[in-house]
Amino acid sequence: MTYETALELIAKYGNGLPWTDHCVAVSKLAVHLGEHLPDTANIDVDFLRSASLVHDIGRYRDHHPIIHGVEGFRLLSGLGYAREAFICASHTLHGLKRTDAVKYGLPDMDFIPGTLEEKLIAISDSLMDHTSPTTLDKRFKSLRARYKSNHDFMNRLDEAEHTARLTIDMFNEKFGLSIEQIAINAFHDRT
Length: 191
Prior knowledge:
two-stranded antiparallel ribbon; 63% helix; mainly alpha
């Protein structure tokens, strides 16, 4: 999927709704983080840019914190964008294990971010509170407040936060940087 195609899909399915602003912000942050990694990371910035832009496209149909990933997967799979469809499902809770995937109507497989790009998109989403970069602690506090009545989601949120923290630690240790600090400074660094 090209970035232009991703923009067209967000325009078509998002109708300018506020969730599309979040998608744009996550895309900018994912690219910003990817550009801070050394060349040896071999980040596919084009994929990162387009896939992160459509990560929440399922919100055109449902705003449930898990089901929107399923709906995005269905939409993009049907359009022939398998890699981007995987992002929609796998960014949810930093991954869905096979049993949860099947429970929500996804194919019988794990939807766990595996590549650096997949992990960067999930982390970028977790470090973006609507359109403002934030810390992981603040973002998960915000999610807990927003979805406190959704017991299914809340039961999985602690594990998701733990996975996100491990992912950030992996990036920090592997590449000698601070992902959260880079995220906080993301939109201040642009000239």
